[in-house]
Amino acid sequence: MILTGLEAVNFKNIGEARLELSPKANCFLGDNGMGKSNLLDAIYYLGIGKSFTGALDPMLIRRGDDFTMLRGTYLRKGIAEELTVGIRQGRRKSFRRGGKDYKRLSEHLGKFPLVLISPADMDLVTGPADERRRFMDMIIAQTDPRYLDMLIRYNRGLEQRNKMLKSGVTDRELFLAIEAGMEISAEYIAAARRDWTALLTGIFGRYYRLISGTDEQAALAYTSHLLAPGTSLVDIFEQRRTRDAAVGYTTAGIHRDDIEMTLAAMPLRRTGSQGQIKTYTIALRLAQFEFIKKASAMTPLLLLDDIFDKLDAGRVGRIMDVVGSETFGQIFITDTNRKHLDELLARAGEYAMWHVAGGSFEKISETSR
Question: CA-to-CA distance for 70 and 46, rounded, in angstroms?
């Protein structure tokens, strides 16, 4: 899949940008705070339906304006496609594919795949379990529509159960009616997460070794209350009913799942250096790329947002070798250091480069082969 053109109006600090893009490498050079990452966020929003920063839609509108618009033209499976997004203060946003609004935005997820690697990825290791669950859910939902439906159903049941606990409801039959539905969803979600983690671990370990240049064993392990043989969610709820009533919320279930991240069999968040953690998370994202590519039969866009900080020259060079290979298709990369970009472009062949300042984009070089 290729993003052939991008238009952004009043998006964050970008007043107006119209870019014709290279099918291989697209580089954005400039100081911090100039709009490089905002452009990647525009691409991310078109592909995923939300900002990678977690900002609410009205916050994406440039200060002083009352609307923002994004338009992307794609070559997807050999067919030209167009996505447009319109956000206006106080109104429901418009998200269209080929001029037609989606009935449900969840229908869009996975249709225009991409993978973003950014400094915030270190939170996957150092942050709370919520970060790692979102990581799992976002990837699996892009390749399994039923997974997203099950996740929505489970979360609705969880919300109902927590409301009952907070309200002091004691009728066991009322709880069982909700818990039975949650159990069906939880079993599907836990099985999908378990299988996905097992599959990703092998891919991920290979990328970690490639980037680190070492034989260190990097591994992932899925942890869940539902992994114990013969354990059901209803049984878990029954065992914890008194405790849950006392604290006023549900203390066990797939909403408490996590991923153990280890390096040389040691917990990475406790023993890893900044360089090791960054290498680990970059390898995770590249494994995500390969997983989505195989599952969707499309090559995702790869967005690299200022990823080389805190990495030694050897690791930077090995990352360049990996992402410049034929495995990866169209790449978007931001950096403040032209040397990094020039090294990548030497491997990429065809490219375009822009200088970014104050939300404006000036093409400074391009080539094709």
Answer: 7
